[in-house]
Write a structure and sequence with these properties.
single chain, about 450 residues, alpha/beta, N-utilizing Substance Protein B Homolog, Chain A, Alpha-Beta Plaits, 4 domains, four-stranded antiparallel β-sheet, 21 helices, disordered N terminus, binds S-adenosylmethionine, rRNA processing, S-adenosyl-L-methionine, EC 2.1.1.176, transferase, cytoplasm
Length: about 450
Amino acid sequence: MSKKKQQIWNGNVRDAALSILLAVDKNQAYSNLLLHQTIEKYKIDAKDRSLLTEMTYGTLQHKLTLDYYLEPFIRGKVDLWVRWLLRLSLYQMEYLTRIPAHAAVNEAVEIAKRRGHQGIASMVNGILRSILRQGVPSTAAIQNPVERLSVETSHPQWLVERWVESYGFEETAAMLHENNIPPVQTVRVNTTRATVEEVLASLEAEGVKAQQSDMMPECIHLTNGTAARTTAFKKGLITIQDESSMLPANVLNAQPGMKVLDMCAAPGGKTTHIAEKMANEGSILAMDLHPHKLDLIDENTARLGLDIVQTAPVDGRKAAEFLAKESYDAVLVDAPCSGLGVMRRKPDIKYTKREEDLESLQTIQLAILDNAVQVLKPGGRLVYSTCTVDKRENEGTVEAFVSAHPEMEREEITNLPEKLLAKQNNGMLQVFPQDFGSDGFFVASFRKKGETI
Ligand SMILES: C[S@@+](CC[C@H](N)C(=O)[O-])C[C@H]1O[C@@H](n2cnc3c(N)ncnc32)[C@H](O)[C@@H]1O
């Protein structure tokens, strides 16, 4: 084994989790990508894979709570890697009941010896054993309810305050708790190639337990296995996608033969869904600002056997300079957003996003929407979506958009199951993670005034 390999994976799950946590912290690496790369590169087996995933995500998810618990036991400054080791170990002791606490402590001490020296190992041992004896401090001591919620659910206080102000305490508390629960694996059936029943049978034949969602008919929930390793995936019968991300193509409801534009398309999750809804008949132009991401769209369309999609590297803020005016039947703007709805999958978002980051997004989104209007045919539908939960970003963009564009009207969303439609408000639908166990997501529908298509 090379020296580099030993640093990340030496067969020890806790060591690997620690390396990933450190890389996420130091290099602002994305936890989901790094975890995936580590698993693929070192071909980590199923048992270690699930423990590694659980420990890495769990520790990150609960970071602020773990820090609150550790606070009274740490004297002076400790190195970053030691702090992460303590968090990782305490996570196991507090949240992973199947791991005996003394085993977590012993492992931590061994890692501290290997990575540091006997002195650090003794300190780690002392801190963790004191916690075992005394227990962690109660959050009941925190007077301010918003601060307490922030600590208990490990979300930054500015965000908790912002959400409480927008959605109220109860809804926010439910969302914060849901954000710490790992998401169910969901896939979308490529309806141009297979039925839901055929895919279920294929998955079952490989020992994957799955069932059709009672929300989106083309969605399947997996209870075990890894979707990307199944025959159904390799044959292009399914796409791995969160159920909320299946909303925009349904709301857009593009018909076979239409000319459709997807302005922020990479990696193509929604482009391919739209193509499937169109029965692979018509045309879709899938654009993205970043040329290198277009390859991902091409890979996905090739795997799924969808040939009506063309890709182009275009800045959506200038799209109307390159495309024929009023020439598209339907346009999707799945905008670059703050991503606050996907914390279950990307817990690092909780700690890296800053409040000021949120403000600039509306300007970009409005500029892309403005170009969408110019290339949309009269009577055509425009759908705006984000994977975020933020009133100012979502509803705020919609308000600013409709007041700047009298030629656009809000449109009632119709093409969704009743329980989703019941949640819409004035052509807008905000899904919270706790609603259906899917990602936090926002979708809004508009029609350009003029003749009907
Ligand atoms: C939410 S993601 C899109 C996900 C995609 N629709 C899917 O379902 O797979 C937003 C995308 O917008 C792209 N983007 C960011 N700024 C853009 C711009 N000015 N014009 C076009 N695309 C942009 C990003 O590269 C990113 O791929």
